[in-house]
Amino acid sequence: MKQVFKWKNGLCLIFFLVIVGSLKLGTTKQLYIVIDNAKLRKSILSFQPLQNIGSSAFGASVARQIYAWGMEDLKFTNYFDFVVPENFENKGYEIYQIPFNEWASLGTEFLIQGGYKLDRENLTVDIRLYDIKSAKLILGKTYLAKEKDAEVVAHRFANDVIETLTGQKGIFQSKIVFVSDKTRFSELYIMDFNGKNVKQLTYHRSQVMAPSWSSDGRWLAYSRYTTNSENIRNLDLFILELATGKERLVSSRPGLNSGAVWAPDGKSLICFLTFEGNAELYQLDLSGNIIRRLTFHDSVDVEPSFSPDGKRVVFSSSRKPAAHLYLLEDLSKREVTTLTFAGQHNSTPAWSPKGDRIAFAHRFNSQFDLFLINPNGLGLVRLTQSTYRKNNEQPSWSPDGRHIVFASNRSGKYGLYRIDPDGNEEVSLLLNFGNCHYPAWSPF
Question: For labelling alongside 396, which of 94, 219, 308, 342 has CA 20 to 30 A away?
């Protein structure tokens, strides 16, 4: 039984998507599509509309929508070219009903077929994935859910298809959290990986900033301005439990408490604090107690990002005349090395999930653009090409490391965009939703 979270009015309501009848197809996992940094050849896939396997005609519109959502997810990956045959007789989706030779003659390498039935509000979806060349079933699952949760079914089976073919998890149930001033206040919002189903998470009527996900996807850390009983305004650090919508104060030390990132083990946070007069990095436990101070410098040290193994932290600092990126090589020894040397300002670093690259915003000629760099300081690559006073900044990686979401004001107001690490597939995700900042892509 799989827990799935659904968002409503800033709260996370739990329902259950039950998966039954999953076919065990051997213990050795074969990779049908090998994903690496090279430009991969697209596989030929056919995804046939779902057949009605129920005793009534109900559910046809739901099945068409599931098919559309699933197709949209599969196209998103850019792994496939699609075969859509005309006048092809669909005799059924079990293996003995599949004309493998006919599909092979069309060039099809992989075939998805399935069925559905709707009994009142109870939805059943059967999915079969076939390898045409070897004429074998490589994925077979039945998904049980409520009719209202049909979109989750589509994303879940698309995830299963991708993991079966590539050995890597799909991102179709991942979320992106961000900050928007749509209501005149800066509040937290959340949306699907593709920019759809935007929901508001907070209603503080204040200024919220810098959200960060815990590695299990259950919590968000973020900062917001509060006003105490003496009418003093302070930027405090909070964590939000998504399942309940409950917020907990972590640090309200005088000054700035912000830029928090979670340690991969979920037991601590690194943020910058100014209560001692200068912006320095500190490691806190989840109750706000200081575990250790990490930086000791008279410059501003901000915007930390953990390496996936939790051993190193990259951050931005004004230690030189211009802001550059630095690495904390060992948290216990507090050893700092310089990562970048060029540019007027380097900020908002984000470590890739595989740990092999760091995305960041680099300013020159009065605008920010996105760049990538290896953790050893080599391999600097420019991702975006902005124009005067148009900025691309605040990058965040998808959990599979194949996409980057970022904020840009290229259309006038700040919106959210997506780009691949090779600089291709640059598309808009969310526009005309106030000014959107601080996008943070969830874990799987």
Answer: 342
